[in-house]
Write a structure and sequence with these properties.
The chain is of the alpha+beta class. 17% of the residues lie in helices and 41% in strands. The strands form twelve sheets. Strands 1, 2, 3, 5, 6 and 9 form a six-stranded mixed sheet that branches. A four-stranded antiparallel sheet has the order 12-11-14-15, with no helix packed on it. A four-stranded antiparallel sheet has the order 19-18-21-23, with no helix packed on it. A hairpin with a 6-residue loop joins strand 30 (291-297) and strand 31 (304-309).
């Protein structure tokens, strides 16, 4: 290969620096740079068709530099007064700014350089393809020679052909023609041989064939291996020199399988491996050498989990811990037997069914009956065990000559001063009476449950629970939609900034209409977020206030009233008991 380059020292011409109004690239997402003081740097778009420029900002320093298509992006501190421009084949130029730079603003500068020079390139084989700066060039009449005019400066060339080593390099175009001769070398022949005819052969991670493979490849360092399912490959590294044919014998892979046995001390427990059901009570199987999560699952029992790491050809037996029961049972033998039973503030109608499967832990039990003292107990339920309680409710005793106020009995005594004249005293009477009993405990439960979950406390204040369910769905649905709209809007803003960045960099051709539509969608999501969340919160607050005012579900209780008038020497007394 021979190359002739004439030394070039041409003068660079600079058009005045100008501020680009409306260009927010310097302060946009992904393009923003900060100087040593933490200030947003100014961005200068340097328009030029020549690469390999160097820029010197003195002690302040250059913040950042990127080579774009037909331009150089240069970030500088906004306090910079002048900049020095250098190139290997142009005279050095120092440019002083006429106006102070503004932080986070975008400027434009154009560099005019001498035009173009000639390249004469000859190559073999003559069917090779030529690329200069990534652009293809063809040889007229396929004679292995091209002459092209190129911009001044450093240029990259590439000459390639099937079955030959690719040749790459750099040239410098100046006033004088550059002559270049490239002769490609034929690729070496490589043969890979596997131990078995059905073994898969891989070269540098790419599948090449089965059993035996031969092909031409570029010179360099390689790694070849044989792969089989359930085996560990044994890579073989080698170097292939230019013009050298080589045959490589590959090694057999190593088996990877291990044996694992899992046993459960509890009959009927299901065995899961990495979330997949494998067997019941006991399972044995072959696995790859890796880390696994083993679980025992059984209805009404806790899940037992253990992590096991298997090595190649290892045999492991794993005996798991027994799962613990999650539920117990409760038997209540009360005296009297027909009392009302509240379990964790819920009235139990089917006692046998309700107490058969109770979650492990502490629970509260309340027994009530008209005319009896209420009994409140705390019971601890143990997993897999039955707990028996024999509570006794004591009758309420009300003295005849006292005023007693209880849950079900109230006695009122009234005395009237008798006049001197005679008075008619009626006989004792028993009258029917119906009252609405209001429980403060249930009112508080309804309020706090509605405060935690909208609609939960409705069943205490209305016959149907359907409306409360719709409150729950409505409140949670609106709040969830608002949260989802918030994150969706953030995603739209991020996409808008990415589209704007790609458009300014020239890597995408988005229209201004597309950018405006994306920005409008993001703003709409931002406005909808507080509206949805606020509406859901209003539904929730309305339900809390409604339940607190309404009270609780009324229970009609039929009672009687005893009217017993008595007279003594100077007073008439009335005793009303109900």
């Amino acid at each position: 290969m021979c190359m002739f380059v004439q030394d070039i020292q041409a003068q660079i011409r600079v058009t005045p620096l100008r501020l680009i109004e409306g260009d927010v690239t310097a302060n946009s997402h992904g393009m923003r740079r900060r100087d040593a003081d933490g200030k947003v740097a100014a961005l200068i778009r340097i328009k030029t068709s020549v690469t390999d420029f160097e820029f010197d900002a003195g002690a302040l320093g250059i913040v950042g530099q990127e080579q774009g298509t037909g331009e150089i992006l240069l970030w500088v501190p906004h306090t910079l007064k002048a900049i020095t421009i250098r190139h290997a084949y142009y005279e050095e130029l120092k440019y002083e700014f006429k106006e102070p730079l503004q932080a986070a603003c975008t400027y434009e500068m154009k560099l005019d350089t001498p035009d173009k020079g000639w390249l004469a390139l000859s190559f073999t084989p003559i069917e090779a393809s030529v690329r200069i700066d990534g652009n293809p060039y063809s040889s007229p009449r396929n004679n292995g020679h091209i002459e092209v005019m190129l911009n001044y400066g450093r240029r990259k060339y590439e000459v390639s052909a099937d079955g030959y080593e690719t040749k790459e390099g750099n040239i410098v175009i100046g006033r004088e023609m550059v002559e270049l001769q490239v002769n490609l070398l034929e690729m070496p022949l490589l043969t890979l041989v596997a131990p078995n005819d059905d073994d898969d052969i891989y070269l540098n991670g790419s599948f090449q064939g089965t059993g035996r493979w031969t092909g031409r490849v570029s010179s360099g360092d390689y790694e070849a291996e044989v792969r089989r399912e359930g085996f560990q490959p044994q890579p073989k590294s080698f170097t292939l020199a230019a013009g050298e044919n080589q045959t490589v014998e590959l090694e057999s892979p190593i088996p990877l399988k291990a044996s694992l046995t899992v046993r459960s001390p509890l009959e009927g427990a299901q065995i899961y491996l990495n979330g997949e059901l494998m067997g019941v009570t006991e399972w044995t199987g072959e696995l790859d050498a890796a880390t696994y999560t083993v679980e025992l699952r059984m209805e009404d029992y806790s899940t037992v989990s253990e992590t096991v790491t298997l090595a190649q050809r290892e045999e492991r037996t794993l005996t798991m811990e027994a799962p613990t029961p999650l539920f117990g049972s409760l038997v209540v033998n009360s005296d009297p037997s027909d009392c009302n039973i509240y379990f964790d503030d819920e009235l139990i109608e089917n006692t046998a069914e309700a107490f058969r499967r109770i979650a492990v832990g502490n629970h509260r039990l309340l027994l009530t009956k008209e005319g009896y003292e209420s009994v409140e107990l705390e019971v601890n339920i143990e997993g897999g065990r039955q707990t028996t309680l024999t509570p006794r409710l004591e009758p309420i005793v009300v003295p005849q000559d006292t005023i007693a106020t209880q849950d079900t009995v109230t006695t009122a005594m009234m005395e009237t001063l008798l006049p001197d004249s005679s008075i008619f005293i009626p006989d004792s009477q028993t009258l029917p009476l119906t009252l609405d009993v209001i429980s403060p405990k249930k009112r508080a439960n309804a309020y706090w449950r509605s405060l935690l979950v909208p609609g939960w406390g409705d069943k205490y204040v209305r016959e149907s629970e359907r409306f409360g369910v719709w409150k729950t769905i409505g409140a949670y649905g609106l709040i969830g939609a608002g949260v989802g709209m918030h994150f969706y809007g953030k995603e739209q803003y991020a996409q808008y900034e990415t589209m704007a960045h790609d458009r300014y960099m020239g890597t995408a051709t988005y229209t201004q209409e597309a950018l405006d539509d994306k920005y409008a969608l993001a703003n709409t999501c931002r406005r909808m977020t507080p509206m949805l969340i606020g509406t859901g919160a209003a539904v929730w607050l309305y339900d809390v206030i409604w339940v607190a005012v309404k009270g609780h579900k009324s229970h009609d209780t039929s009672m009687t009233l005893d009217f017993d008038p008595k007279a003594n020497s100077s007073f008439l007394s009335y005793s009303i008991t109900f």
